[in-house]
Design brief:
The protein has 3 helices and 4 strands. It has about 120 residues and is α/β, with parallel strands linked by helices. A 4-stranded parallel beta sheet has the order 3-2-1-4, covered by helices on one side. The two termini are about 25 Å apart.
Length: about 120
């Protein structure tokens, strides 16, 4: 039987909340369903991995996009309804990809994941 994980991508306050720097209004509509997925994953013992944009205050990306998800700010936090809990994994990324220069591939290999469920 394949070992699964649930990946939650960029459900951060700077993307989801009303008036956020890079607000994606439809993202608020999926929070409830993501919470249901998280609850089901927890019941089944499926590992949960949050992949989160996380930038330094002077990140060159801010030449293209407004300042967002700056390390240590409220905007870089996962929205309250689906915040990580003890035992969940958080992988930080500095670009669009959760795999480019992150530890995601190593994390997936370490826990023996064969299948990923992606949301966010």
């Amino acid at each position: 039987m394949p070992k699964k994980t649930l990946l939650i991508i960029d459900m951060l306050k700077d993307f989801v909340e009303d008036g956020a720097p890079l607000e994606v209004k439809p993202a608020r509509k999926i929070v409830k369903n993501i919470k249901l997925q998280i609850d089901e994953a927890r019941k089944q013992g499926i590992p949960i991995i949050y992949v989160c944009d996380n930038h330094q205050k002077d990140d060159p990306e801010f030449r293209l996009w407004p300042r967002h998800a700056v390390q240590g700010t409220k905007g870089a936090e996962v929205v309250d309804d689906i915040m990580p809990k003890k035992g969940d994994t958080i992988v930080y990324k500095k670009t669009y990809s959760g795999f480019f220069e992150t530890e995601l591939d190593d994390v997936l290999k370490k826990i023996g994941i064969d299948e990923v469920i992606i949301t966010g």
